[in-house]
């Protein structure tokens, strides 16, 4: 059954409503990946799904609440992929590379993570925000468990590391949001400068420093 069929059906039972809401989310993620954050329109999403715009607001009070839900789904999805890439006794660099590459590979996760605290969370109701923060806390624990094993850290150290990696990921990937100069002829020194500020080397180099720094601290201080 296509998502359009599910969306256009009249939702009567709780199960039908849940299916319809998920179909809206799937359509929203596809649309988001096509147009990006700024161009995303609830009115256009309604047209894409064949429902009245007001129907969308039965499931999500604001556009940002929809984005928050998409972020939560992408966080869980990314976590599963990242955990699958972890192994016992990884080097700090291998861990950082796995985290970066899996995050960048998810077309929804990183664009929403970057906007989460500065835009999205400012436009949702407090109860929904609290629910999302609690979900994040649970997901940190999910990722911290295998991180502890992979990097031979205590649970407290692993938990601190996972939270810090998220902050670093946001900061490093913002370095890639300047104008695209791929087709421009630039002096070598300028090319080298731009390359040094690209997100991947910035993230991995500093992630390794953070991992080693956390490892060096007594677990009791975290």
According to CATH, the fold-level topology of the largest domain is Tetracycline Repressor, domain 2
- Give the name of the CATH architecture of the largest domain: Orthogonal Bundle
Order of helices and strands: HHHHHHHHHHH
N-to-C span: 50 Å
Number-wise, the strands total 0
Main attributes?
11 helices; Tetracycline Repressor, domain 2; mainly alpha; Arc Repressor Mutant, subunit A; single chain; 222 residues
If you had to describe this structure to a student in words, what would you say it looks like?
This protein has 222 residues and is an all-alpha fold. It has 2 domains: 1-59, Arc Repressor Mutant, subunit A; 73-221, Tetracycline Repressor, domain 2 (Orthogonal Bundle), CATH 1.10.357. The protein is built from 11 helices and no strands. It has helices at residues 3-8, 14-39, 42-49, 53-59, 63-85, 92-105, 109-115, 126-151, 155-173, 188-196, 199-216. Helix 9 packs antiparallel against helix 11 (199-216). The longest helix has 26 residues, at 14-39.
Compact summary:
This protein is about 75% helix and about 0% strand. It is mostly helical and about 220 residues long.
């Amino acid at each position: 059954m296509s998502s359009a069929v599910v969306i256009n059906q009249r939702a009567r039972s709780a199960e039908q409503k849940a299916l319809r809401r998920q179909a809206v989310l799937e359509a929203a993620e596809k649309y988001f990946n096509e147009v990006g954050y700024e161009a995303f329109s609830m009115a256009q999403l309604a047209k894409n799904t064949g429902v009245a715009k007001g129907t969308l607001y039965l499931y999500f009070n604001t556009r940002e609440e929809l984005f928050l839900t998409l972020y939560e789904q992408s966080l869980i999805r990314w976590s599963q992929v990242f955990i699958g890439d972890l192994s016992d006794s990884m080097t700090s660099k291998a861990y950082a590379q796995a985290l970066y590459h899996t995050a960048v590979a998810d077309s929804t996760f990183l664009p929403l993570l970057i906007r989460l605290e500065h835009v999205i969370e400012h436009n949702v109701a407090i109860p929904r925000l609290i629910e999302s923060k609690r979900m994040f806390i649970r997901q940190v624990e999910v990722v911290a468990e295998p991180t502890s094993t992979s990097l031979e850290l205590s649970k407290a150290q692993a938990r601190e590391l996972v939270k810090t990696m998220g902050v670093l990921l946001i900061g490093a990937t913002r370095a890639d949001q300047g104008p695209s100069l791929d087709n421009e002829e630039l002096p070598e020194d300028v090319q080298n400068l731009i390359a040094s500020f690209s997100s991947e080397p910035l993230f991995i180099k500093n992630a390794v420093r953070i991992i080693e720094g956390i490892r060096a601290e007594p677990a009791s201080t975290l």
